Amino acid sequence: MLPVMLGGLLTVLQGFPALAYLIAGFPAAIIVAVGWTFFRMHAQIAEVHVRPGEAAVRTVWEILRARPLRWAPIYELRAGKSSLTLAVGDAAYELSRTAWPEADTLLDALRSARALGTPRPW
């Protein structure tokens, strides 16, 4: 919305008609904002469930839609300074430590669950 408002302001200050610009700009800005929100809700991880050998990760969208947990084996865990990398099933997730204040507790739970899980075939 800010670029549309600034563009409209600059157009008016230069003495040009701004109505056509604003009529096209505001709906375009709303469509982009809705699309970005939709994308973020599908990408933002909100829950990590842990049980021996498996974990289930759900996004904000999956929680709002009351989708069931999809349990999958924990394949990889990596702890960095700013994030945790988690490979569960066929997906890899990166959890920012700033978004997950108890990241170390989560990492310990995931490591314990991975250690208690079924032995891997390799």
Fraction of residues in H or I helices: 40-55%
Beta strand count:
5
Strand order of the largest sheet: 1-2-3-4-5
Radius of gyration: 22 Å
**What is the H-and-E element order?**
HHEEHEEEH
> Structural class of the helices, strands and pairings?
alpha+beta
Large-scale geometry: elongated
Low-confidence stretches: none
Tell me the distance between the termini.
Answer: 53 Å
- Please summarize the sheet with the most strands: 5 strands, antiparallel
DSSP summary: helix tally? 4
Mean pLDDT, all residues: 87
Our estimate of the beta-strand percent is: 25-35%
Please outline what is shown here.
By secondary structure, the protein is α+β, with helices and mostly antiparallel strands. It has 4 helices and 5 strands; from the N terminus they run H-H-E-E-H-E-E-E-H.
What can you tell me about this protein's structure?
It is a single chain. It contains 4 helices and 5 strands. With 122 residues, it is α+β, with helices and mostly antiparallel strands. It folds into 2 domains: 2-41, no CATH class; 44-116.
Annotation keywords:
46% helix; five-stranded antiparallel beta sheet; alpha+beta; 122 residues; 2 domains
Task: Detail the topology: elements first, then pairings.
Elements: H1 2-13, H2 19-43, E1 45-51, E2 54-59, H3 60-64, E3 72-79, E4 83-88, E5 91-96, H4 103-116
Antiparallel strand pairs: 1-2, 2-3, 3-4, 4-5
Helix pairs in contact: 1-2
